[in-house]
Amino acid sequence: MAPNTANSPIISLRRVTKVYGEGPTAFQALKGIDLDIKQGDFVAVMGPSGSGKSTTMNILGCLDVPSGGEFLFKGRHVETLDRDQRALLRRRYLGFVFQGFNLLSRTTALENVELPLLYRGEDKKQRYEMGMAALDKVGLKDWWDHTPAELSGGQQQRVAIARAIVTQPDVLLADEPTGNLDSERSVEIMELLTDLNRNSGITVLMVTHEPDMAAFARTIVHFKDGLVERIEQGLAA
Amino acid sequence: MLGTTVILAFRAINRHKLRSFLTTLGIIIGVAAVVTMVTLGNGATAAVREQISSLGANVLQLRPGQGFGRGGGGPRPPDFKERDLTAIENQLTGVRAVAPVVQSSGTAIYEGNNWSTTVYGTTSAYSEVQQWKVTDGRLFLPEEEAAGKSVCIIGNTVRTNLFQGAEPVGKRMRIKGVSCQVVGVLATRGQGGFGDQDDVVVMPIKFVQRRFTGDRDISQIMVAVDDAYDSATVQNSLEELMRERRKIKAGDQDNFNVFDTKQISDTLTGTTTILTQIVGAVAAISLLVGGIGIMNIMLVSVTERTREIGIRLAIGAVAREVLMQFLVEAIVLSCLGGLIGLFLALIASVAIAPLMQVPFLFDPKVNLIAFLFSAAIGVVFGYFPARRAAALNPIDALRHE
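Above: the input entities. Below: the structure tokens describing the complete assembly.
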């Protein structure tokens, strides 16, 4: 990665609004968000429910489009892209980790991790090598042939992280990744994310309710009532 | 991309073996039913054709009256005389052999065994007309025919029931109270379109006329057409000759009829073909129901796997890939069902054909069409659920419980 881009924003939101529904029942979830996220940053997004943080994450994950304003991802205007173009953007640059792990049941850890590579059209050998490398990174190399039902919650989330990073994405979006885990497992997951952020240069965006988890981030963005309330530096900064 | 979706489809099917089997059961049964029905139907058609050709190829049957019956009201049309027979033999071209027939029925007795059977009075030409050989013994001698001697040739059913293993040739049996000597046994013909063809006793026509029917009339004349001649032409000449001989005025209706066995053959094979098509069509409905079964399960599957679809969309699957995945899954399921169905149909046909006494005829065309049809069902009934899966919003799909 070229050093001069290390601190340039990979993501820019400009006056982004989001309205659900139409007419008198319309609900304005985002009221004009301005946000820059630098490449290599570790951002925790906090805020009460209904504050617009999930909507923002959906837009940042290219799963949803803003109703107004601009969303630049690596200089590209995402708000102008159609469904499939955004899917290709996700495939190429983004990785997702969810609160509920969202692994395919009755499918081995390795097959789960290989899934994004299938859509990239990698051949069998390549998929195996990359998949095993990703599992190795999250410390589950020996568990590759276990199905989610045979893994603990913490292990399942590690597999999910392996799946998210197997394509070597620029940005990892994590939606309450520790929400279903006990505090000990949570810390392990946060240490893993921190490690990926520091050593692999992946930009991490994480939604969390827990200040303890947010403390692992460099930047903490607080949402309130559809607006960015304040941005502060985390302990890791 | 297709390779990827096929891999995914097989993985998904493999993950839910029982459900996949149940899903495709409708197709399996449908294809098996259609192919079995059509295969057996074709066998039945072939069997009918075979049996009819065993009646003697290209035989014209001349009977008094119109059509099968003896005609409507009015006086009974006269039977034929021996001079009609002579005229046909001498004046008609394209004739291989001519045999007169009078028919009677009665009980045959041999050493305390009774058997009710049909008696044909005819000549040795009957064997030639019918292409029906005598396996044991001999045909009638010319002097036996001329004198109307009390000799007979029996069919195999009569031999089995009356003689029960004993050698019949040379023995004397009683038929309708008259003693007669068995001189020959006819080759086995089996079940014909008109019952057991082997249940018959053949005697010289003069004997039957004298002792059983009591007159010199001939109720039926069988004319075997020479293979070199067209049977329709010979039939026309025969009709012309008989109109002349029976003094039927131009414009009057015939008081006799000529039946070409080829017509019976065409009619009966036509009937079995139609029956095969009807039964096949009924079975095809079950195939359609099988297709709806696939759509039903695929729709349930899409709902059940909403979250999975959400994951796939989130990690970068485009809508077309999700559509293809579910479509290919449906097609693979229905094709697998089709193959299993074809296999079952093969087993069923081979097993049932002998029970129905029809030959087993493997028809590659029927099998191919049934298979392609099952694949088409996968496309048609898989498309709607697949489109529904592809249209899902990833955010909603991920949130789906």
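Note for the figure: Confidence is low (pLDDT under 50) at residues 1-5 of chain A.
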